[in-house]
Sequence to fold (208 residues):
Amino acid sequence: MGKIITCTARRTDAPRVVVCGAGALGANLIEHLARSAFPAQLVAIDHDRVEAANVGNQPYDLRQAGQSKVHALAARIYEACGRQVEAVHSTIDAKSARNLLRGADLVIDTLDNAAARLAVRDACSALGVTALHAGLGADGYVDVRGNEDYRIEEPGAGAGPCRDATSRSQVLLGVLMTAEAVRTALTEGRVAIRAAALGALLQSTLTL
Fold:
């Protein structure tokens, strides 16, 4: 059982939720939490910049190409719903992770490389911060798990869901699964493994 952080709309000391990665999963997750009035201080960390290839599957548009992803995302969300997101344009690695994640109540890792994910895992373990590792895999697979259950795996070759606009349904499933994991981690102090394959889920849902 992890630390329970009371999460209500009237809190003035809302939990600090840090999302590592502002790509397909991370950026859409932050936008989802912000637009649904999720009661937390939202922080986005990434060092990447918006590319034209991102707009099919990430909440950016062509006018933002070349801009810092986290700053473009924060501006978009504030313009859309008046919600403030703290934007941190920085690389997460073994040297920077502890300083970047210190003070967080919950860290959500949506990064796309093994070294950065390992840095987040180790930093959260050292800091005693609850962490969720969310990822998108082949064949529509979505996986969300805590530090204790997480094993580093390098993504396979290919464009991946971050750039492949045809995988948007998988991304949205990942957002919903991760958002629910965030809710239970903060309100119940519970981190459970969540995994699903989009094709199997749709087949079971649509079969009469």
